[in-house]
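Dear support,

Our group has been running a series of protein-ligand predictions, and this particular one with cytidine-5'-monophosphate is the one our PI (initials K.S.) wants archived with full inputs and outputs. We had some confusion internally about which version of the output was final, so please treat the block below as the authoritative record. The input we submitted was:
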Amino acid sequence: FQPKLLAGKRVLLTAGPTFEAIDPVRGITNLSSGKMGYAISRAAYEAGAQVTLVSGPVSLPCPVGVRRIAVTSALQMHATVHQQVAAHDVFIAVAAVADYRPAQVVEQKIKKRLQASPPSIELVANPDILGEVAALPSPPLCVGFAAESENLSEYAESKRRSKKIPLIVGNLIQDGFSGDCNTLILFDDDGAHPLPPAPKIDLARQLVARVALLLEKV
Ligand code: C5P
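Confirmed final output from the archive:
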């Protein structure tokens, strides 16, 4: 029997990649299966929460009981999160948001011109969705993710400090990408809490338990 750790709580999540269009058939994206964010959505629902999942393009079914809002670009994800956030107690940002998008979306397919020099794409920065939510006057409890290829503890802790969030989840890219298992380390004010290799749904349940604990403290 799983105690309903998040009964009566409303949890907003982002998951998956974003896709930043260059023209009607091309774009810039990040590699992200969405599996970790979807597993956390499921675990939060199982724990009794009302769950809203803002999802970039992935090929996963919506977890039972979860309200999913599908988006494509970082700007759409940003707008949707801002529309939704006031009604939520917790915000868990799992999405691999593209840091940059093309400054202009070209309306017609860009044609290949072999004689000319290759085209260049001007990029502009996307908003930091999690950073902005954490800076709201009365933010929900904010949880971030740090996917790193090295120096996990150092990078995750510095991200937690710079975004001013109580909890960040670190994982090494080589451990979890696109698979069903992962290895996580949770970093909060009490220090580092390693979660040994396990299926993503088990890790998601452990993360939900830590979120419930932090909610008790606020
Ligand atoms: O270092 P970075 O800003 O990419 O931090 C990763 C964390 O911030 C993740 O939780 C990710 O979902 C979130 N993020 C975001 N908006 C961005 C970039 C990252 O919400 N534009």
